[in-house]
Amino acid sequence: MASSTREVVTLQFGHYANFVGTHWWNVQESSFCYDTSSGSSPSEINHDVLFREGLTLTGEQTYTPRLLLYDLKGSLNTLKEDGTLYDVMEKDNEVHWMGDVTLHTSETSGKNQFLKDLERIDKGELPTEEDASSAGTEDSHDEIQEATPHSSTNPLEVFRSKLYNLDGSVSVWSDFLRIHLHPRTVSILSEYAHDLEQDMFDVFDYGQQLLGTPRVSSDLEDRLHFFVEDCDSLQGFQVLVDPYNGFGGLAAEVLEQMSEDYDNKGILTFGCYPSVYVRRSPIVDYHRLICTVLSVTKLSTSSSLYAPLSVAAGLGRDPGPTASFPYMTYNPTLHYHTAGILAATLDTCTLPYRTRSDAVLMTDLTGTLNYSGRKMAALSARLPFPITLDGSLAASLSQFVAAPDLVSLCPGVKEPGRTFMQSVVLRGVPSNRIRIPDPAAHADSIFRDCRSVNDCLKRYLQRVYPGTLNAGTVVNEPMTVTTPFPHLFQPEIAHDGLVGFKPRSPMQGVEKVPAMTSLSSPSGLQGCLTALHGEVEKLDIRRFHRFLDAGLEEDEFKEAVESLRRLARTYQTGDNEMAEDSDDDSD
């Protein structure tokens, strides 16, 4: 590990958060360079920030995420809690009881073709001719298809050349987990079961209650201390959480303790919302709404910065329509798809504190964005960032000067309004695609004298956001979206992520893409928070007895509702302050 590395520990709370996290770890692992003999220069991304080296009991070297994740019983499928992906856990059915016994068991789904191949690759086995005979196309319904012929004898390279369609074979996040996990990573809350109609984990205080039990409390403390003490220079924590159920309460309680124990460290928290909920009814929708309100107020208080994420437009009871990306097609009902989009955006927006050189501290990033008590942030993306095969970065940015069109991934924020501060990351622009091909024909372009990606990005931010405190980060490496990332990119996107002139062959997937993200503090968050406040302002919490039975006090809920209003006011500008005053007068 490099002496200059400032490590980050990641925590994931909840099933959808683990979908997002799994994609994120897969994306990072797919960009690792295992062949150190090729003489290639080291990656710009310092993976030691999020990953740790270790040794197995047999002396084999490992490289696993510095990660704690929490989920419910029934959410692992073939993954063992000790992080071994490839062997189904042996069950001890011996019962030490002399009376009548009823043994309840749950079936474990079999491995999909991706996991079967991954197991063989882990053993160093090459695919057989029988595998090659299962060729198909990118949009085939078969689980596995063969991509372009591969001459390599490296099992990993052959594996990466395959295309998989896992849309129909992913039910839980471990069904597409590509990496190994440390034995201390996975913790299952056995008190509740995943996808169970009875005793649902849908009340905020259920999570708080769990942390009050000695088993969960001591287990979390032991796991967290292990990863923290393993760090030489810890800079902070990344947190992914399902804020719409009991995991919001668990995370809020954990972060409150962490903010006291590690008060000089950064805590960057992302609330992960799916775009479609399987269960919809008035009572279920209100439960989600109440959990969301409590999560927003408590997580934003205990975190250095809190950013809700979703491809859906709404943060309240109705998720609303889903975001549209110019060069992507996805199924909003599949967590496997929507979580992939969120993970790709997270992988890009967190690069400022993960680069090998010129990295910023997480506390510096969050401290800039949370100025004046603005503890909530909005994330938006342009994925992929469009550069044509005969075009340039300057030409692409020129299109967006008049009408910036980053897609909002902050539910409740359609238009950002005034942006107070933002951290913009641009990655994956080819070195030969920077300048306008014919500068003389574009003499009036603001990019005519730009010589680098940094120059172009700086000029763009100055022109489009003149009154904003802008921080720009450029990384040359594109984002890797190989197996098992879902096939979301339209045929116009070539295998290298550029916009082509003809459709990509269905036998070929997209391997890498350029991307642009903005993590910002915009005035549009006032409308988001005000709308959320409006949904709960007159809500009688006494109607929801399960929350009260779990320990929620009426005054506590009223204070959370008022905290929403106070948080919304921190994003006021002159214009939206007048609009709010007008709304108040009409009440």
UniProtKB/TrEMBL annotation:
Keywords: Cytoplasm, Mitochondrion
Residue ranges occupied by any Misato Segment II tubulin-like domain in the UniProt entry: 6-120
Annotated compartments: Cytoplasm; Mitochondrion
Region (Disordered): 120-153
Family from the record: Belongs to the misato family.
Function, in words: Involved in the regulation of mitochondrial distribution and morphology. Required for mitochondrial fusion and mitochondrial network formation.
Protein name as catalogued: Protein misato homolog 1
Protein encoded by which gene: LOC109484144
